[in-house]
């Protein structure tokens, strides 16, 4: 069995699975853990509500709803849910019995929690009402006491309009009630929010035309209103008025303003009794509330232990049934037929999974894996590890490789950091970036949850290759004509690297290497002839002439070879096709668009019939023109290697000259201070501008060179990515 | 030194390339490691060779117009 490699996407096979009904769920569970099959939908015309396993999915939806409810309750009570650790994630999907048990457990929990929540709410309301009542009794006692202490004054000023309304005859016997009755004086007591107090007073005065006596006191602590659940500042009020109609009016007005009325008895003894009774009731409520709170918390803590496990199980089960909905149900043989793509190398693993599932469920009927022949284009599957995945991602961002096409990802592993380094071009900065990358790699486990693959893959690879190994002679540093030299050097280097990278894919094209301007121009104007004084090396004329000739030949070569070869092959197939009408016995896929039995081979013949030479020629023409024009433009595009490295070098140089260099000449304390400031400035600008900004810039341009100049030479990138049924992928998606 | 260095080092690089081709053990990552090594050797060789060639037959030499060379600064 050949190893799969990054060079091409893997060979994929279309397979058919026959799964007996009783092993269906465990089989799909095993395949989900394996994650190697992309199932096709065999029921595309059936809408979601008519599929076979809708009931089961609905059941799991219900359970999921309960679990979400638990999650909300836990958040409200600030209880953390136990997170999933690595091995717990590998919980296998459960058997039918275990699912039933789980469902029961969840429903039971939910019932209890809802019950406790309700009773807590009720108790809470009662508690609040009682508390307000307590305050009312407390404060009104003050009024009544106050009033009775003025009995002497009252007697004398009974008829005066400013006199207090209360008259006491006999305080010791607590006969207030007689007095009030005698005077036909009623009162209303209650609680109202402080904000509305003034409005309340004003409305009462206007409505009753001043025939009332209102007194109020503020309650010190804020109270939660039992009806609305808001926390408010409240006042206790007592209103005395004459006659039943006025009392009724007052009652209506208070209620409309949202005051809560609490009846208070006029007899002080009764009031005292009420007071003690209420206090004891408050105590009782309080203890019951505490109790309920604790029991609820214990219950929630228990749930918190298992919540994530349950959620994972439910998610897996739902995924299993959604997948099973894609299968075809053969009622005659009581089995499910599944169809899908899988890597050809993994048949053994899949068969093993099927066997495991059969053993687990204790059934005697095995599942069957069958390979189908097809002309459909398979999905593209490239096996990556955590190092290569980053590079593959940036290639896939441009376009997923066509099935079995050469994968640029393989080369990108080296060429991308190389071009990045040529543009970044700085050993010192490179070391800093490498250090940062090393830090991330070492702390990989900790970062695993946070950082996405792309960023990680890129960082791991910021190792610099573009270092000066033997390099540029240090004598150049500081000289005034340094730029002239380096510009020429970099330009040539860019072009050479560009030509080599493009030649790498095997297209037979030769571009003339750039030389001195005149030489180049005259090479085309006077082919094969070079003036004696201009000669750079012996035989130059001949070499130039030959190169030009080869370049000229390449154009018709590119234009004509491929179409004619294709035409010749087509003729060969055609002649063969009529001689071999027999078709291999193929298991036909249960797909609806194959209407004829054995239509597989017929399709092939159909395509061959449609070979159109004219169309192929046109395509090839376009391709040739594109390539020739691209030769110039793409080569020039590589000059950005020069541009960026120049920019980076100059920026670094100027930064040094402007910040640290002047301070090196200063001496003494002033010099030291200046140095420290300059160093801070220099280092922070280095990190932000030279490392981050320039790094991003180099990344972008290296990427562009790969995506455009490299890829457009050979890469089609029209494939679709292999997306297997895998619990790992499903759970990972849900986490984000 | 001379221009022959380029050829000699190039020859050495191809030896390394051949070695890496044959010496990487079979395994799921064989292609990746081989390709990476070969590309690395080629890239390093190229960088060195281009820099070397650029200085082989110099058309200009370093010139300084007054001022102190930074290597001569005293602290």
The main sheet of chain B comes to:
none
Which descriptor suits the 3D outline of chain B? elongated
In angstroms, what separates the terminal alpha carbons of chain A?
A: 37 Å
Summing up helix and strand content along with how strands pair, one would put the structural category of chain A as alpha+beta
> Uncertain spans of chain B, ≥5 residues at pLDDT below 50?
none
Strand content of chain A: 5-15%
The amount of helix of chain A comes to 55-70%
Please indicate the count of domains of chain B.
1
Number of contiguous helices of chain A: 23
Query: Secondary-structure element sequence of chain B?
Result: HH
Largest interface: A-B, 43 and 31 residues
pLDDT < 50 runs, ≥5 residues of chain A: 162-175, 449-469, 505-515, 580-609
How far apart the termini of chain B lie comes to 37 Å
Helix tally of chain B equals: 2
SSE-based structural type of chain B: mainly alpha
Pfam families (chain B): ATP_synt_H
Keywords (chain B): Hydrogen ion transport, Ion transport, Membrane, Transmembrane, Transmembrane helix, Transport
Subcellular location (chain B): Endomembrane system
GO biological process, one term (chain B): vacuolar acidification
Polypeptide structure, described:
- Chain B: This is ATPase, V0 complex, subunit E1/e2.
- Chain B: One of its GO terms (molecular function) is proton-transporting ATPase activity, rotational mechanism.
- The complex is a heterodimer of chains A (736) and B (75).
- Chain A is of the alpha+beta class.
- Chain A has 23 helices and eleven strands.
- Chain A has helices at residues 24-34, 54-76, 96-148, 151-156, 176-183, 197-208, 244-256, 268-324, 347-361, 388-398, 409-424, 427-442, 444-447, 453-460, 482-503, 517-525, 540-579, 599-609, 613-637, 640-658, 660-664, 668-710, 727-735; strands at residues 12-20, 38-39, 185-193, 212-218, 223-224, 231-232, 234-242, 260-261, 328-330, 335-343, 368-372.
- In chain A, the strands form three sheets. In chain A, strands 1, 2, 9, 10 and 11 form a five-stranded antiparallel β-sheet that branches. In chain A, strands 4-7-3-8 form a four-stranded antiparallel β-sheet, with helices on both faces.
- In chain A, a hairpin with a 4-residue loop joins strand 9 (328-330) and strand 10 (335-343).
- Chain A is flat.
- Mean pLDDT of chain A is 77; it is low at 162-175, 449-469, 505-515 and 580-609.
- By secondary structure, chain B is mainly α.
- Chain B has one domain (4-56).
- Chain B is 63% helix and 0% strand.
- Chain B is built from two helices and no strands.
- In chain B, helix 1 packs antiparallel against helix 2.
- Chain B is elongated.
- The model of chain B has no long low-confidence stretch (mean pLDDT 79).
- The chains are: A alpha+beta (736), B mainly alpha (75).
- At the A-B interface, helix 11 and helix 15 of A face helix 2 of B.
